[in-house]
Specification:
Layout: H1 3-10, H2 13-17, H3 31-34, H4 36-48, E1 52-56, E2 65-71, E3 74-80, E4 86-90, E5 105-106, E6 111-112, E7 119-120, E8 126-128, E9 152-158, E10 161-165, H5 173-176, H6 178-183, E11 192-193, E12 199-204, H7 208-216, H8 221-224, H9 226-231, E13 237-242, E14 246-251, E15 279-284, E16 288-292, E17 296-306, E18 309-318, H10 325-352, H11 369-384
C-alpha cells in the first residue's frame, strides 16, 4: 500500500464512521480482516506501539528457562535470568543476526550462537567472542562487548501475562492500565497456574480482531453457549467499557464450580463481597482476554499468525498451589468446550468478510457497546499514529 493509498485509507468515510455514536456507527471494513497490507499497517500501530500480550511467565518457571516466540514475524526470546527475572530479547546474535534459540530449553550457562559461538549471559550481556581477533584471539580493539549485548524488548508482567512494548514509546504499563489494575485490586495476590491440565491452545481461521469482538460481548450467549446461558443468563450480564483501554462483560450470577463430593476450589482471600456472585471477562487491548472469578482466573493471549489465522493460548490459575487434579481437568474441559463453541462463529464472520457488499455492519445500540469501543480504539490508533500519518 503506497503512502497516498494509506492517506486515503485513514481518511476514508468507512474508517471515520466507526467513531460515530454507537447507534449510527459502522464496524471496521473488510480490509481490516482480509488485506495483508492493512494487517502489516495495524501490526505497528496496534501491537508494536502499545503493551501487547506475548506469553505467560508460567511457561518459563525456572531460572534459565528459555522460550523462543515468533511475534508477528519478529523472533523474540523469553528467558528467566539468574536472579529469577523474566526478560524478553530479540532472538538474534549481534554478530550476523543468526537466530540464537530455536526451541524451548534450559540455558545452563550462556546463550550460545550456533553460528560463530558468540555467547551471552541470561541478562543479555555479550560475554565471549571466540576468535574474533583471529585464530586464538578472542578479543579485538574494535569490538566493544559493552555495546553489543542482546537487544532487550521492554516488558511487564501482570497477572502472569508477559506484556511487551516493541517500540518503547508507550508510557509505563502501570500508568496506561491503572484503571484496570484498580478495578481488579482485590485480586492483587498470588495465583498459581494449575499445570498441564490447566492450559490449552485453540487455533482459529480468523483475523485476531474477530476473536476479540466475540469475547467482548454477551449478546451471543443464548445461541452459541446455551449451556453457559442456562445458569448465567444474558440478562445477568453487564457491559464493561473503559475508552481506549479495555472492554468486556461481567455477570451478576457466578456459580462456583463444585465436584461430585462437594469439593470447591479455594477462593482468593479477602475479596469484596461483590465477588461472591460476580465475575468479569475483559479484553486488555489489543490481544489479551482475561477472566476474574472468586475461585479461579484465566488468560488467553491471542497470537496473530497471519491476517486470517489466530492462535489462542489459554492458561488457568487458582488461589492455592494445591488443588484437586481431577477437578482441574474437568474445569479445563469446561472452558475449552466454551472456546471451541466460539470457533464456528468467528470463522463464519471471517468468511463473511469476503463479501464485497458488507459495509462493516451495524451495532446493536443496547448490546454491542463493548465491541464498538474496541473498533473505535482500532480506528483511533490508526488515524492518530504519527509514524503512519506524519
Amino acid at each position: 500500500m503506497l503512502e497516498s493509498e494509506w492517506e486515503a485509507f485513514t481518511l476514508s468515510d468507512r474508517l471515520q464512521s466507526i467513531l460515530a455514536p454507537l447507534a449510527q456507527a459502522n464496524g471496521l471494513a473488510n480490509e481490516h480482516y482480509t488485506d495483508i497490507q492493512v494487517h502489516d499497517i495495524e501490526k505497528k500501530a496496534l501491537f508494536f506501539d502499545t503493551w501487547a500480550g506475548l506469553s505467560v511467565g508460567s511457561e518459563i518457571p525456572e531460572i534459565g528457562d528459555a522460550k523462543p516466540v515468533n511475534f508477528l514475524g519478529l523472533p523474540l526470546l523469553i528467558i528467566r535470568d539468574k536472579v529469577g527475572e523474566v526478560r524478553v530479547f530479540q532472538n538474534i546474535c549481534r554478530h550476523r543476526g543468526m537466530i540464537l534459540v530455536s526451541k524451548a530449553q534450559r540455558i545452563e550457562g550462556a546463550i550460545r550462537c550456533p553460528y560463530h559461538s558468540w555467547c551471552y549471559s541470561t541478562e543479555g550481556r555479550l560475554i565471549t567472542t571466540p576468535h574474533v581477533g583471529g585464530p586464538g584471539r578472542n578479543t579485538h580493539s574494535e569490538i566493544d562487548k559493552t555495546t553489543l549485548g542482546l537487544i532487550e524488548v521492554r516488558s511487564h508482567i501482570w497477572r502472569d501475562v508477559i506484556f511487551i512494548n516493541i517500540s518503547g514509546k508507550s508510557p509505563p504499563f502501570e500508568t496506561v492500565h491503572k484503571h484496570l489494575i484498580q478495578r481488579w485490586k482485590d485480586f492483587d495476590q498470588p495465583m498459581y497456574q494449575g499445570g498441564e491440565n490447566s492450559k490449552f491452545t485453540i487455533n482459529v481461521k480468523c483475523n485476531w480482531k474477530l476473536a476479540v469482538e466475540n469475547y467482548c460481548e454477551s449478546y451471543h450467549l443464548p445461541w452459541v453457549h446455551p449451556g453457559l446461558n442456562a445458569y448465567s443468563r444474558l440478562e445477568d450480564h453487564y457491559h464493561i467499557q473503559e475508552t481506549g483501554l479495555y472492554s468486556g462483560q461481567g455477570t451478576n450470577f457466578y456459580r462456583q464450580f463444585e465436584g461430585t463430593d462437594g469439593y470447591k476450589f479455594p477462593s482468593f482471600k479477602k475479596l469484596d463481597k461483590k465477588w461472591g456472585d460476580s465475575a468479569e471477562y475483559i479484553t486488555v487491548f489489543p490481544n489479551v482476554l482475561m477472566a476474574c472469578q472468586k475461585d479461579h482466573a484465566w488468560s488467553a493471549v491471542l497470537n496473530p499468525i497471519s491476517h486470517e489465522l489466530t492462535t489462542e493460548d489459554i492458561n488457568i490459575y487458582y488461589a492455592s498451589p494445591t488443588t484437586n487434579k481431577e477437578m482441574r481437568e474437568v474445569n479445563k474441559e469446561q472452558w475449552e468446550d466454551i472456546f471451541i463453541e466460539d470457533i464456528s462463529v468467528v470463522e463464519g464472520m471471517q468468511l463473511g468478510r469476503k463479501c464485497t457488499g458488507f459495509d462493516g455492519g451495524r451495532f446493536s445500540p443496547a448490546m454491542d457497546g463493548p465491541t464498538h469501543l474496541f473498533h473505535s480504539w482500532v480506528a483511533n490508533k490508526l488515524i492518530n499514529n504519527k509514524d503512519l500519518n506524519p
